[in-house]
């Protein structure tokens, strides 16, 4: 007995999934039980599964004003007509049971049904709903770049769904996110709205998807006229084209930046350490240079080798200089006073010469 219940409930569970979301609109009030509206409603909603399942979409209407009702059914583009019919049957029963409002919609993974006192044909009012999938409760490991890939995929699918007439406003696709993760998605519109309306509806839905699910392992947004979804597994039953991943701009670049930073750091360290050693050596040599300055200058003068003196900023080479005796130079440079030192040249220390008493 227990086994039978478990078996039956298992079969039941595999055939009929729970609705994703049920929206009984509170805006327009409820219809009266036993009213003509309710009678028309039942005709519309119970007719929808049989007239919609073969093509996956249809509209129907019943009654005259003010009790006229219109209804619409849509199956996800990849489901078989029998799976579509099973889903729509369940949906129509559930919707009549759950809602008593004059306007309502129910969404399942494989199908949706809506009815209203308003003419639903071409009625495109975006009102996104956010059913919470199991996958939506888990976050992805790389939260920084994930949504860029989801957006790339969804933008592509939205255009495909809206503009590719061979696809009945349904598009599936996949994009490789990492070595072990591929994002699968679909975008779909009801076939009664225009291309631009479909694109607009999906762009609103994508904004909502960003809000709820930009770093989640899955997400779905449903609205009356469009829906979109992504998962890290292939949840649909259709061949899907692979969308090209972005050039290694996002994550690839981080590796590049890391390499460049490493090289720069190593280079800077090499330069700093190298020049420190160089400066230390140079400093030591400078001390030695200072010691021999006076003697060297006297020596250089004595052997009459090139010496450069400056005269009011003008460089004068020693070859052009008239002969000067050492006493004149000593007097002119104030006995090689540090205050007369201009700098250190290639030939030795350079002194400023004051011409008081010195003749050219
Ligand atoms: C919609 O249903 C009507 C009535 O059954 C049918 O004639 C029509 O072919 C259906 N349209 C589509 C697109 O399935
Ligand atoms: C609903 O609107 C469509 C397009 O605007 C129109 O073709 C259709 O006849 C209308 N249906 C009803 C029942 O008013
Ligand atoms: C019912 O009829 C009224 C008046 O013709 C119309 O405005 C309204 O759109 C119709 N509703 C449906 C569901 O077709
Ligand atoms: C429309 O979809 C079909 C089937 O996937 C594809 O072969 C075709 O290239 C698409 N057309 C456009 C314009 O994208
Ligand atoms: C993919 O690999 C990363 C680590 O590289 C891991 O964190 C993540 O859970 C893996 N994802 C799946 C779906 O296996
Ligand atoms: C997937 O599609 C194949 C081929 O159309 C079909 O045989 C199979 O039953 C489908 N599976 C589901 C779960 O719809
Ligand atoms: C969608 O992606 C495919 C494959 O990367 C590409 O050929 C196509 O041009 C894209 N379509 C749009 C509208 O971006």
Automatic annotation (TrEMBL):
Any signal peptide, and if so, which residues? Answer: 1-17
The record's family statement is:
Belongs to the cysteine-rich repeat secretory protein family.
Q: State the superkingdom.
A: Eukaryota
Q: Does the keyword Aminoacyl-tRNA synthetase apply?
A: no
Task: Please provide the record's keywords in A-Z order.
Answer: Membrane, Repeat, Secreted, Signal, Transmembrane, Transmembrane helix
Q: Which organism is it from?
A: Salix udensis
One cellular component term (GO) for this entry is: extracellular region
- A Pfam family cross-referenced in the UniProt record is Stress-antifung
Membrane-spanning ranges: 256-280
* Broad class of the protein's primary localization: secreted
Q: Which residues form the Gnk2-homologous domain?
A: 19-120, 128-235
The protein, known as: Gnk2-homologous domain-containing protein
Compartment(s) of residence: Secreted
Gene3D superfamilies with a match to the protein in the record: Gnk2 domain, C-X8-C-X2-C motif, Phosphorylase Kinase, domain 1
